[in-house]
Amino acid sequence: SLGAGWFFRFIPQDAYAIHGLLDQDAYDRLIKANAQA
């Protein structure tokens, strides 16, 4: 289990997603891809 820490690695480059500029489906794929990495 990567825990919450994995997510914070992505904040600088993926902040746009957090701010809702990425549609929900694409955001879900991003999260799933990172969770499976």
UniProtKB/TrEMBL annotation:
What name has this protein been given in UniProt?
Glycine cleavage system H protein 1
Organism of origin: Pseudomonas syringae pv. maculicola
